[in-house]
Amino acid sequence: MAYRPELEPAPPQWPKWRTNLYVVIFHHDTPAGKAFDVALIVSITVSVLAVMLDSVSAISRPFGPYLYRLEWFLTGLFTIEYILRMICAPHPFVYARSFFGLVDLASILPTYLSLFLPGTQYFLVIRMLRVLRVFRVLKLAAYIGEADVLMVAIRNSRRKLSIFIATVLVLAVIFGAAMYVVEGRTHGFTSIPQSIYWTIVTITTVGYGDIAPATPMGKGLASVIMLLGYAIVAVPTGIVTVELTRGRGREPKPCPGCAAADHDGDAAFCKCCGHRL
Q1: Angle between the N-to-C axes of helices 192-203 and 216-250, in degrees from 0 to 180, rounded to the nearest 10
Q2: Which of 38, 43, 21 lies closest to 108, judged by CA?
Q3: How many domains does the chain have?
Q4: Do 149 and 275 belong to one domain?
Q5: Where is average pLDDT lowest: 8-12, 13-17, 34-38?
Q6: Among 54, 88, 125, 153, which one is least packed by beta carbons within 10 Å?
């Protein structure tokens, strides 16, 4: 389960200003905390829109300087917010390594990196991940619990998925080399890497159509790859589905009020917020 600072009480030795700051930033069920998160979501949305508009030449030419200033202004606010989160988190270094902690950091770094690597500011769209906090603001914490179940299932499936991906890559190399031999350079298969690219596009059922076999043998081999592609697409779905089924029987149900999931099997109420399970 991801680190949740809001589920921990503020240390009693903290000064009052730090405790109040902790409540505003991490407690989403208070009026001040909800207002803070709504303002944060609005700022994130405005920031991402500004980055997107800056990539449109018809808009960036007349309004580029204003968008640039807005980007730096919002980055400054997000930097201050990140520092305040680190100050008032009960375990700041644990929070810094958590999912939201890493997203918070990644959402401000591109602007500073753009001073040395122009163009990296467009990676600021990662800030949209921070809007996931809207689930907590709108009392949809059960959805976060479901997301935790999905992440556990994917994590438990990682070895099987790794073997599956390695197998697909081996098949792509073999079929790519075969298509290079069958079709040759005259039909667009100019090299084995190019043929492997075509195989991956075909086996994943994407089918760009930029390269296509022309010989009867090549079309027959392509048909085999296409049919194999349908079977391959179903495999990772089945692997993750099995882990989801196991996880639901093994993992405690998350609280619909705060999404905490570390309850006893016979618990009727959440030990963190008191909500009925």
Answers
A1: 50
A2: 43
A3: 2
A4: yes
A5: 8-12
A6: 125
Same-domain check for residues 273 and 154: yes
How confident is the model over 162-180, as a mean pLDDT?
A: 90
Residues 126-155, mean pLDDT to the nearest whole number? 65
Q: What contacts 272, CB < 8 A, 6 or more positions away?
A: 7, 255, 258, 260
Do residue 277 and residue 145 come from a single domain? yes
pLDDT at 54 exceeding the cut of 80: yes
* Rounded Cα gap, residues 261 and 1, in angstroms: 8
115/203 same-domain check:
no
Q: What is the pLDDT of residue 1?
A: 47
pLDDT > 50? residue 105: yes
Residue 258 has pLDDT above 80, yes or no: no
CA dist., res. 142 & res. 203, Å (int)? 37
User: Residue 271 belongs to a domain with what CATH number?
Assistant: 1.10.287.70
CA distances from 18 to 15, 82, 84, 95 (A): 6, 15, 9, 16
Whole-angstrom Cα distance, residue 21 to residue 64?
35
Same-domain check for residues 68 and 16: yes
- pLDDT, residue 164, reads 86
Examine the domain organization and report whether 107 and 170 are in the same domain. no
The pLDDT mean for the chain works out to 81
Boundaries of domain holding 147: 139-277
Reading the block at residue 129, the tokens are 């991940």
Q: Which residue is associated with the tokens 């807005």?
A: 70
Q: Please tell me the distance from the alpha carbon of residue 14 to that of residue 234, in angstroms, as a whole number.
A: 53
How far apart, in whole angstroms, are the C-alpha atoms of residue 132 and residue 144?
9
How many angstroms from the chain centroid is the CA of residue 215? 43
Q: What is the CA radius of gyration of the chain?
A: 25
